[in-house]
Design brief:
Elements lengths: L7 H22 L12 H11 L4 E5 L11 H9 L3 E5 L7 H26 L6 H17 L2 H7 L4 H25 L3
Antiparallel strand pairs: 1-2
């Protein structure tokens, strides 16, 4: 077993490199710019939300308290007529990237830490690059990718978008795998 303290450099550096990779994907390649559509009546929808003064949070339309209520003819009619959706409202104000990027980096560190934990419990010091790459890469891929699937199944996220997020996770897992393989204790 390898002590986690011995893995501080691959933990930190893999988080930095994945941060850089994700920045390139989002800000240079702009692969995800087409993931969001614009409502044809955006101003009317905004006016309804402003009038309703809904707090930031997660919402569903039509809303019902439990599964039994879905048998109610009025609720069934709402589902049939549409729209049906799940959406999030954020706090009003200009989005500030600094705090969001800070939270993203903390998330990357957490994923790197747990990747290090799994690898440190399964691989001894001196393990060859490819074996470390496999374990770290699989762990990173799981952490960065598989959360997109439940969102597509249950929340209506388009599968096209989920597949792009899975591809991002594969890239991030490969970056992490390479970093851990390179810096694994000898």
């Amino acid at each position: 077993m390898v002590a986690l303290a011995q893995l501080w450099l691959p933990i930190f550096l893999s988080a930095v490199l994945v941060f850089v990779a994700s920045s390139l994907v989002h800000m240079v390649i702009k692969w995800h710019n087409s993931d969001y559509g614009r409502l044809p009546n955006e101003e009317e929808v905004r006016a309804v939300f402003q009038k309703g003064n809904a707090a930031p949070g997660q919402y569903v339309v039509p809303w019902c308290i439990d599964q039994k209520e879905m048998n109610n003819p009025d609720v069934l009619k709402k589902y049939t007529e549409g729209p049906v959706g799940i959406f999030y409202l954020l706090k009003p104000g200009r989005p500030t990237m600094g705090p969001l990027l800070g939270k993203w980096f903390v998330y990357l560190l957490v994923v790197s830490f747990f990747t290090a934990y799994v690898a440190s419990r399964t691989l001894p010091a001196g393990t060859d690059y490819l074996k470390v790459f496999q374990v770290a890469g699989a762990t990173g891929f799981i952490a960065y990718s598989l959360g997109a699937i439940p969102s597509a199944i249950w929340m209506g996220k388009p599968w096209r978008v989920a597949c792009k997020e899975i591809a991002d996770g594969l890239l991030y897992g490969l970056v992490m795998a390479g970093t851990f393989g390179w810096l694994w204790p000898r």
